[in-house]
Amino acid sequence: MTPLRQTWQVYLRGARTLRRQPAYLGMTIVQPLIWLLMFGALFRAVSRIPGFHGSYVDFLTPGVVMMLAVFSAGWTGMGFVEDINAGVMDRMLASPVWRGALNAGTVAYGAFTVVIQTVLIVLLALGLGADFRGGVVGVLVLILAAALLGAIFASLSNCIGLLARQRESVIGAVTFVQLPLTFLSAALMQPSLLPGWIRAAARFNPVNWAVEAARSAAMQRADWGLVAGRVGLLVALLLLAALLATRAFAAYQRSL
Amino acid sequence: MPPAIEASALSKTYPGPVVALAGVELTIARGTIFALLGPNGAGKSTTVRVLCTLTRPDRGSAQVAGVDVLADPVSARRVIGVVGQKHGADLEATGRENLVLQGEFYGIVGRGLKQRVEESLDRFGLAAAADRQAKTYSGGMQRRLDIAMGLLHRPRVLFLDEPTTGLDPEARVALWREIERLAAEERMTILLTTHYMDEADRLASELAIIDRGQIVARGAPEQLKSELQGDGIQIELAESENANAGAALARLDGIREVELDGRTLRARARDGGAAIPSVLATLERHGIKATAVTVARPSLDDVYLRHAGRAFQAEQPELEEASA
Q1: Shortest Cα distance from B76 to chain A (angstroms)?
Q2: Quick check: B91 and A93 CB within 8 A?
Q3: Is B322's pLDDT higher than 80?
């Protein structure tokens, strides 16, 4: 009970910050809309490539969702960096609070942001005429996959924040991984049109797992075996990332 | 009953290598205000970090309120309150939100928590500002919030790491009163670190001077001062080339511990006022001009000078003690 309560309280702290910073809230909302519109316009011609099937908005929506999930949850570790600089982290660590809750609460908040953004993208995509063949269930799977992916990167970001304690390191890590992970996946391009080595690399890429699960469940006739497999991989990676972040507190304390 | 704090042979070296603690021994009786005094980089904060389970020493052992902080840090965290050097409060959150979250961290929930938060806000004069973001608070109010948070779970030992650093003189005195009130009302043990002599002198019933990772002196402030036996005499010389001035003074009856530090000549005498005429006469006989003479009752600065072997103010370039 206590770990859950504490996780919830840490989550609330993050959520309050979002509510109190309207500019940040506005960016959180506007960003996904710009991305979908921009990518949609930029890559519209892709659907004319021989071998590409279906509408590009249908295809692109899960890709943009996952790209944004990595990007927006990736900043989660900035909160820890600021807590460390402000003395808040030491105060929390001198209390008997469960370390896992400090990570899980901020990760939950990061994932919550991703969920809001995903819902906005889905609504916009509907407006652009996207066809969610998987219906409500399919969209829920899309949201789940995005939340899991966001949670993984939020946790890893916390890890970096605790170990490196510098904003620059978190910024560097996010910008370093985001584009390669997006391009080494079927986020923006149909798998059959990807070069062989990218297709091979994509098999180990969590962004690709999330894209495949979401695309299958929400946009196509769902292959539930594939969806379950990919979601399972995401859950497993999330547990690993959460474990790493929780252990990073001990590493941080060793350096004090 | 075990002492409130007992530490023995605490050693810690940071990569560099920088020796932060070189065998700190500390015993602090229950219900006292104990000051750990020393310049930046002396090991004050590292000692506190070890005692409040934030970091581990390379060697040594420590118990707080009878709990072994190395073997059982989680239990230790329940009985201590920590107010760090930097603001522990989340400045984006309100005072009330900070207190509630802090209570939850200690497993205090529901109506009990609500009541405690209200009491705490009243007690520290924050009730009117309870629902304002802490970043709108004055320095003194922020510090009071930090302390309110450190006390919310009613710890048995409270650590105050440089509580008045950065406060204006008025807020400083107000905080001193608050700390005195706490010690009197709660009968709590308070370990306070400071680099202000007057702060230690006013608040602490006992203090230890830490220098280069070791405790170099300890005792009640009065006791440490009386150990110096006599007044301090400080003479500012017109010129610095006066190597024989010290030697001449040292030969005088009743004058001890003569030290020359640039143009400043320091010495001790049992009765400083009475010694001045003969001191000045001696200097004149040697053709040495004095520009100013002061006689002072022993202060903690003198105690520090005696034990650390150098004046407190004239420190070498400060070592960054906070590692973050």
Answers
A1: 9
A2: no
A3: no
As a three-state string, the secondary structure of chain B is CCCCEEEEEEEEEECCCEEEEEEEEEEECCCCEEEEECCCCCCHHHHHHHHCCCCCCCEEEEEECCEECCCCHHHHHHHEEEECCCCCCCCCCEHHHHHHHHHHHCCCCHHHHHHHHHHHHHHCCCHHHCCCEHHHCCHHHHHHHHHHHHHCCCCCEEEEECCCCCCCHHHHHHHHHHHHHHHHHHCCEEEEEECCHHHHHHHCCEEEEEECCEEEEEECHHHHHHHCCCEEEEEEECCCCCHHHHHHHHCCCCEEEEEEECCEEEEEECCHHHHHHHHHHHHHHCCCCEEEEEEECCCHHHHHHHHHCCCCCCCCCCCCCCCC
State which residue of chain A sits closest to B153, comparing Cα positions.
Answer: A95
Are B323 and A253 an interchain contact pair (Cβ–Cβ within 8 Å)?
Answer: no
Ramachandran sector of residue B59 (left: φ over 0; alpha: ψ -120 to 50; beta: rest): beta
The verdict on B25 touching A (C-beta cutoff 8 Å) is: no
Q: Is B102 on the interface with A (CB under 8 A)?
A: yes
Where are the domains positioned within chain B? 5-222, 229-297
- Out of A145-149, B65-69, B145-149, B186-190, least confident range: B186-190
Question: A153 is written with which tokens?
Answer: 């990167």
State how far residue A35 is from chain B, nearest Cα, in angstroms: 30
Check whether B244 has a pLDDT greater than 80: no
Query: What is the CATH code of the structural domain delimited by B5-222?
Result: 3.40.50.300
pLDDT beyond 80 at B309: no
Give the mean pLDDT of A216-227.
Answer: 93
Q: In 10 A of CB B192, how many CB atoms?
A: 26
CA B179 from chain center: how many Å?
Answer: 13
Query: For chain B, how big is the Rg over CA atoms in Å?
Result: 23
State whether residue B16 sits within 8 Å of chain A by CB: no
Query: In this predicted model, what pLDDT tens digit does every residue of B137-153 receive, in sequence order?
Result: 998 899 999 999 999 99
CB distance A214 to A141 below 8 Å: yes
Cα–Cα–Cα angle for B3, B8, B9, rounded to 5 degrees? 170
Q: Kindly state whether B82 is in contact with chain A, defined as any CB-CB distance less than 8 angstroms.
A: yes
Task: Name which of B74, B102, B324 is nearest A84 (Cβ-Cβ).
Answer: B324
pLDDT given for residue B57 in this prediction: 95
Q: Where are the domains of chain A?
A: 2-254
Q: Which residues of B touch A93 (CB under 8 A)?
A: 54
Instruction: Give start and end residues of each alpha helix (H) in A128-223.
Output: 135-164, 167-183, 196-202, 206-214
In whole numbers, what is the pLDDT of chain B averaged over residues? 86
Which of B45, B58, B85, B92 is the best residue to mutate to test the A interface, defined by the most A CB atoms within 10 Å of its own CB? B92
Q: What is the nearest CA distance from A245 to chain B, expressed in angstroms?
A: 17
Q: What is the mean pLDDT of chain A?
A: 92
Q: What architecture is the B229-297 domain classified under in CATH?
A: 2-Layer Sandwich (3.30)
Contact: A20, B78; criterion CB under 8 Å? no
